[in-house]
Design a protein that fits this description.
By secondary structure, the protein is an alpha+beta fold. It folds into 2 domains: 47 residues, no CATH class; 49 residues, no CATH class. Helix content is 51%, strand content 14%. It is built from 3 helices and 4 strands. The protein has a two-stranded antiparallel sheet with strand order 1-2. A two-stranded antiparallel ribbon has the order 3-4. A hairpin with a 7-residue loop joins strand 3 and strand 4. The longest helix has 21 residues. The protein is elongated and about 55 Å long.
Amino acid sequence: MKEFRKITDYAGTYGLPATYKKFNITADEYVKIIRVLVDASQENMRKVDKQCTKCMLQKPFTHFGPHPSRSDGIQSWCRHCIANRCVAKEKKVYGSI
């Protein structure tokens, strides 16, 4: 059951249905399908770059964090830009760090 929960979490991250009951399949079949879809999605993510909307640079998908509510499943800003934003906010709130 622990593995099933992990698979459904992956499914939600990649925008896939998180329940198998509406498809009239067993949990094992669902896990197999999700594994195939997630593997294919991860393979595509390795091949394709995405443009950060903050710095406007093309970067691999591995440079972006997950964002389940977006259509592609990843954030629009790269991790570096998000980290810089957090540091800037801390400086603004707390003064010089």
